[in-house]
Amino acid sequence: MSDKIRWGVLGVAGIAVKKVIPGMKACVRCDVSAIASRDRGKAEQAARVLGIPKAHGSYEELLADADIDAIYNPLPNHLHVPWSIRAAEAGKHVLCEKPIALSSAECRELMAARDRTGVKIGEAFMVRTYPQ
């Protein structure tokens, strides 16, 4: 087993390509291994620009990738819970952009998926651990 977390990124959102992926690439414990988009061309372009080895033409394809340990989910807010649950059900740990859910009911769904699958699910809310 590698000492690096092999990340897959759901989508080519600005926060992902401008902030999070460059940050992950600077981390010695992260390997950004794949990126997905509903438009394969967009995924391929982002992969080329960011030096990511694999581009997938669908989110499902990324979740099925056996070489991915964890998913970063920067999709639009209403897609955070459904795709984070699908990632958990595929056996992937999840780092979800904020807000992690749009209601307490959605949050309970996500917690149930976490408990059922045994993966870790977290919200990308840096202020909580920011040294300031």
Give the helix/strand layout.
Blueprint: E1 5-10, H1 14-25, E2 30-36, H2 40-50, E3 54-56, H3 59-63, E4 70-73, H4 80-89, E5 93-97, H5 104-117, E6 121-124
Parallel strand pairs: 1-2, 1-4, 2-3, 4-5, 5-6
Features:
22% strand, alpha/beta
Structural write-up:
It is a single chain. This protein is α/β, with parallel strands linked by helices. 39% of the residues lie in helices and 22% in strands. It has a six-stranded parallel sheet, with helices on both faces. Helix 4 (80-89) runs parallel beside helix 5. The chain is globular, with a radius of gyration of 14 Å.
Integer average pLDDT: 95
Shape: globular
Low confidence ranges: none
Helix content: 25-40%
- Sheet bearing the most strands, described? 6 strands, parallel
Please report the distance between the alpha carbons of the first and last residues.
35 Å
Please give a quick description of this structure.
By secondary structure, this protein is an alpha/beta fold. It has helices at residues 14-25, 40-50, 59-63, 80-89, 104-117, and strands at 5-10, 30-36, 54-56, 70-73, 93-97, 121-124.
